[in-house]
Amino acid sequence: MGNQRSTLASIAGTFDIKPDTPIVVTDPRYVLPKPVSLSIPTGRSRIFISDASTKGQYFSCKSRFAHNSCFRKLCDATNTCILSSHPQDVYGKTYKFFAGEDANAPYVAEAKIDELVFSHILIKCYIQTPARNYMIVLQGNWRTKDASIYFIPPKLQEFDLNEEIMSLAIPIARTRMGKGKDRYVVDIAPGVDIAVITALCITLDGRILATSGQNQYVVA
C-alpha cells in the first residue's frame, strides 16, 4: 500500500484499469464506461451525492438512528430507493445491503468491518450477482480519507494484505479530501457499480460518527 498512497490525490481520469467483467450490483446504468469522481458530504441526516466535476446529482441518502443502529436508504434522482443498508449486530460490525427497502428480500452485498481501529481499517464486502460473487476490500485510514478500495478476483481464495495485495487486487476506488471538512471525493474506476461503492462509503462514515459519539448529525 505504500506506493498507492502517493496516487490518492490524483483525479479519477488516471484510472487505466477496470474489472474484466463489469461489477453490476444495482442497475447497469450505474456501471459507467469511464472513470467518475463523486463528491460525498458527511455528518448530515440527508445528503446529496454529486459529480465532483459537473455538480450533477447522482444519489441522495437518508439516515435514521434507532437503538444504536442506523438504517440508510440510497435513492436515485427521482427519490426511488436503490439500496438500503441494515446493521446486523449491535456493534456495527456487519451490514447487509438490500435492493430497495425490503430487508426480508435476499441481500445483494454484505460488509464486514474486521477492524475498528480507523487508522488502519479493513473492510471486506461480499458482492452477490446472478453471474458470480465478488469481494472488495478497503484498506487505509478512512477517518482522514486516505484509503483505497480493491477488487479481489473471485478465483482468489486467500491473500496477504501486507505483502501481495498490489499484485493480486485491482484498486477500483480511491478517496481524497475535497473542499471543506464535511465533504470528500471518491474516484471510481470504469466498469464498477458506483451505487454500491457509494453505499459502502456512507456506511463507513456513519460508523465513524457512531463510534465518535456524533449520532446527532445523522438523525432524520
TrEMBL record:
Source taxon at top rank: Eukaryota
A Pfam family that the UniProt record links to this protein: LOR
InterPro entries, A to Z: LOR, LOR_sf, Tubby-like_C
Family: Belongs to the LOR family.
Name listed for the protein in its UniProt record: Uncharacterized protein
Native organism: Bifiguratus adelaidae
Taxonomic lineage of the native organism: Eukaryota, Fungi, Fungi incertae sedis, Mucoromycota, Mucoromycotina
